[in-house]
TrEMBL record:
Transmembrane segments: none annotated. GO terms for molecular function: endonuclease activity; exonuclease activity. This is Metal-dependent hydrolase, endonuclease/exonuclease/phosphatase family. InterPro entries: Endo/exonu/phosph_ase_sf, Endo/exonuclease/phosphatase, GPI-anchor_lipid_remodeler.
């Protein structure tokens, strides 16, 4: 691994928050969504243009995406083929000047993974493969960003964990190891994505490595986010360190209910 970016000071956090003039720093908004590769919940319809419009309307500063296509080749009627470019570039166009992609799964037609779209400069990024042999491919996309006027960088990790409980437990250990080794203790952190944690086992483990889930902290339970048409399972999460939640929203109504098999979570955060 390349070396960590250093914290600018050992005194950057007080009570888990940025100490230097934090009241003068603006709030920012994050959104997380499993995009289902740009298809509606039952894969009946390609909805990427509608999804782009909906994401833009949130005005989110950081967008955490899972299951986004990096490349794909469609077979057309008559035997022809059509290559589709990166979905994250299409989604970011003209609104989010900085974006990065972490490829997780590769197959003959293309590949997909996690992506982060940002209105802030991305200083560094690295994709960590947390896949296990014989199971679906998964990854942690770690980014270091520099919000304007902040005295320190902001770390962000876009997460997609596995479907099996034992697999997720090992992947949570890798996530905590990443936080411990790659995110200096004096820096704020957002960890968001699809945790597939329908049993709610991630909270205790992530609390031990200093992370708090925004919906659990403010409402007592994680948000219901799957399936999109009738959300029952609490799969998607936004965890924080060194930041405070100000306003939260589960985007479960139209058009979000038909833009993926998950609904999006939106959070306004303060340093």
């Amino acid at each position: 691994m390349p070396p960590c970016l250093p914290a600018s000071s050992a005194e950057t956090l007080v009570d888990g928050r940025i100490a230097s003039d934090s009241t003068a720093l603006p709030a920012f908004t994050v959104l997380t969504l499993n995009t289902h590769k740009g298809f509606s919940g039952l894969r009946r319809r390609h909805v990427l243009p509608e999804l782009r419009d909906a994401v833009r309307q949130t005005a989110a500063d950081l967008v955490f995406l899972q299951e986004v296509l990096g490349a794909y080749e469609y077979r057309q009627r008559g035997g022809g083929r059509q290559n589709v470019g990166p979905q994250y570039e299409f989604l970011a166009e003209q609104i989010w000047p900085a974006y990065v992609y972490g490829r997780n799964a590769v197959y003959p037609q293309g590949h997909h993974g996690n992506a982060l779209l940002a209105k802030y400069p991305i200083l560094h990024h690295e994709n960590h493969d947390i896949s296990e042999q014989g199971h679906e491919k998964r990854g942690l996309l770690h980014c270091v960003l520099q919000p304007p006027a902040w005295p320190v960088p902001l770390h962000a990790i876009c997460v997609h964990l596995g479907l099996r409980a034992a697999q997720r437990r090992r992947q949570l250990e890798l996530l905590c190891e990443l936080v411990s080794l790659r995110v200096p203790a004096g820096l704020p952190l957002v960890v968001a994505g699809d945790f597939n944690d329908w049993q709610g086992q991630a909270h205790a483990r992530l609390q031990r490595c200093g992370l708090r889930e925004v919906f659990v902290e403010t409402e007592g339970l994680a948000a219901r986010s799957f399936p999109a048409l009738w959300p029952l399972l609490r799969l998607d999460r936004i965890y924080l360190r060194g930041l405070r939640p100000r306003a939260l929203q589960v985007l479960r109504h139209s058009p979000w209910s038909h833009l993926s098999d998950h609904v999006a979570l939106l959070a306004e955060l303060s340093p």
